[in-house]
Fold these 2 entries.
Entry 1:
Amino acid sequence: MSDSCKARAVFCAAALAATAGMAFADGADVIVGELLPQSGSAAFKAGPVGSTVVFSVGTTSCNKGDVEFEWFASTNRHPVIGQNLFKLDNGRFIHVGQSWLKHGFTALQQNACGLGCQPSGTGTLLGVGCSDPYGASLNAGQGSAGPKSQVNAASGVFTYPVQYSATMTAANNSAIARRLQTPLSAYTATAQWFVEGQYVAQDDAQNGNKNNNASYRRATIAATTNGGGDVTDLTLSLTGSTVREVPAIFAWRDHGNGPNTPDNTVQIASFDVPDDGRFIQGVKVIQVSPTLWRYEYAMQNLNSHRSGQYFRVPFPAGTTITNAGFHNVPYHSGEPHDSTPWTTSIDTSQISWAGPAYSGADPAGNEQTANALRWGTIYSFWFEADVGPGTGDGGTELGLFRPGSGSPVVRFTAQTPGGALVGPPLNDSCASAFPVGNGTFAFSTVGATSEGPDACSFFGSAAINQDIWFRYTALADG
């Protein structure tokens, strides 16, 4: 079937499902249907404690799947709910704050998403097409909140009951513990703000539906200042409507030129790591003078368990790089992950930012303690260069932290100085071919050289250009 036929078939199937008022995904499929204030337009707020204030918003989940969604409170077959706050200012998109995770305990059977709720008749299952609301104050509950470090967002599997270390327990003696923490210093009057909610659950992930679990909504923040102009308090309010099934990094493009005014110069691209999860890269290039360009990159780990360890951007020889920067969202309340900023390095052909390399499982290794780009977070990178992006796209590279099958790197097509490309992929030659088995494997030919034999005919040519190599061993003879 041609691509156009496939597209028409998918469109018709979706139209029929919508006309019937029924959910249409295969298997359980939870989404964030609404992000809601606590009262009026205001979010839940506590603090400040010291220089930090906390917020919480309500989340309404909807089951778009064609089977009931699990909500068993006494096992790890229930959803966990995370919240994030992001800031867009002067073309830069950064992750300001994150919460611990609310553990779901029962599901109502409502119809907030208009899918035609088919009630399950029990609080342990969210019916097909049904919705369940969790209020802002409920999501802000501290006692039952669990750390993100005990969740594999790629598989939806997590430790339950939650295992609280002594450090986590001690950190809970505060009004800001385990909640969506926001430093007062993050406030700027010119910024736009966005909140994001994300659900993670086993049955959703096992049915291949984990990549639509995050939604975002615009917010505003008002600051209280003292006589000296120092910010002493913040209040967050929600505005606009929830953008369903769209991670917050897309707000950079959707509102890049102001509220509801898109900036189509922002490039957004996704990459799904085989047998793992999704990374999303955002890129914007700003010409700040006739001979100077600012390059802004943001990388969102939506749900990859392997996580990110380094990020690099190439540039042509002779390029002058200045004003490089990095931002990562801090962990808090006893989470074991370190928040030390990645190290910036510049050589003659690339700029890179790197955290510690993987050294093995805990307690001897750093699997849980290293500052890796872990699920549900965005890290931001920037620099200025005296070379513009050129007319063609270049490429960037994200190195993965945890080991796993397939390539240890992820490559994106992106604007870079002079359209520079990272070096060839690790499996660029036959000698370095990646072993693969049965299944589906993502790949990228960005930066690949041409080595393959003239064995096939493509568009009238027998040459195979920009080839990469895989090695497959048959499982049986005959």
Note: The first strand starts at residue 30 and ends at 36.
Entry 2:
Amino acid sequence: MQPSRSTDLLPAARPIPDASLRNRVATSLSVLAFSIPVYVVGYMLILVFAMTLRVFPVQGYVPLANDFAGWLRSIILPSVAMSASYVALVARMTRTTVADILAQDYIRVAIAKGIAPWRVTCIHALRNAAIPIGGADQWHSCRPHGSAVKRGAKGAIAIEGKIPDNLDDGVTGAGFPVAVFNVLGAGDVFFSGLLKGWLDGENWPVPLKYANACGAFAVSRHGCTPAYPSLEELNFFLRRGVMRPDLRNDPELEQLHWSTNRHGDWSEMRVFAFDHRMQLEAMTGYTLSKSGAFKELCLQAALRVQNGQPGYGILCDDRIGKRALYAASGSGLWIGRPCEWPGSRPLTLEPALGLDCGGVSEWARENVVKVLCFCHPDDEPAMWATQMANVRRLYAASRRNRLEFLLEIIPSKAGTVSTDTVALLIRRFYAFQAIFSPIGDQNRTCSRLWISATAPSVPTTASVRSLPISNEFCGLNIS
């Protein structure tokens, strides 16, 4: 049996109608309105609405302060006559732009999901069509001191003085051929890049290059403002160029975007850890309500010591200390949330996180994913494989949800702990490329990863100095 070739099962694949009578009439009227001189339109309006229908006055002006109704009647015909050609121009541009947008993949997906056609057109298509339409309006209102024109992958053009007949006669800036994924925010970041170069006193090609590169980031990523590049990311992109058109899937750029857009200065921290669970549950007379109240008291003590100062934080769980954890949000404290099952070896994660660690998607953005791993350099390969797999799974979930990640390492008592044990463990984790892969140039800002290592009764300062630790290590806390 041959498969059906009908497109009824895939309405999103049907072409957008373009040759209907309604479209022809609308196009003809817009062309006619744009072609007729303003003074002819004025005479026609006077003949029909003033002399024949006697709805509006033929001439004269009534001040607003004297009579609102008379003022309104006196300005309607002049306003219509002056704006007719521009309305026709915008109508033609709107029709053309909306037709192009209705052919985009995301519109086809919306239609396939069963969204009402009027919602697809008015909310999804018309809103995005306003971007090029608004750009055209700004173009027509440009001033002699100069203007810039976006041309997508063809780059951009700067024009000083009179607008030439051929746009290619302006100063050009290189474009970047990228896959368009999202058009929201492209104009804003384009102008930001243009201002960056202009305020630096650069000649036009440089600001245009900045603007085009910033626009390429915005349209090839998701999220509008969160997709805008940092200065380090922009410079790296300009040096390296486009390696793949879908920038959102470029691992080097994503790593650099992640590592150079962090908020807050946590270089020096004083953290009050009351994330204990196993110890409290083992106490005689333990109840969830009593232990939860205890952790709320711990939070109050931390806030009193902090007193609005930076550099203070807490470690608090959401199993016993949920109320304290939620109350800490917005307080300015650095907040770490443990994910490991207490005392587990090999590492086991809290069941509430789910098999894919999807539970972190519900966390507040200010929460830091913290996991404690008991390990030793002499552990069996199977033990290392299990530990690494769980850390990698949790780290990947943290990155997906743009949460910072804290890996706490404590050398296991299963083997001898020497002055080199801590440093060997840290190097072991960083050497595992599938988890923490150093990407980008050597002068980058480090990624959002902290490692806290504890070696009881061992002079760890000597252990750190005994091994060369490269600039891959950041936020390192040896205690």
Note: Residues 1-17, 135-144, 436-449, 457-479 have pLDDT under 50 and may be disordered.
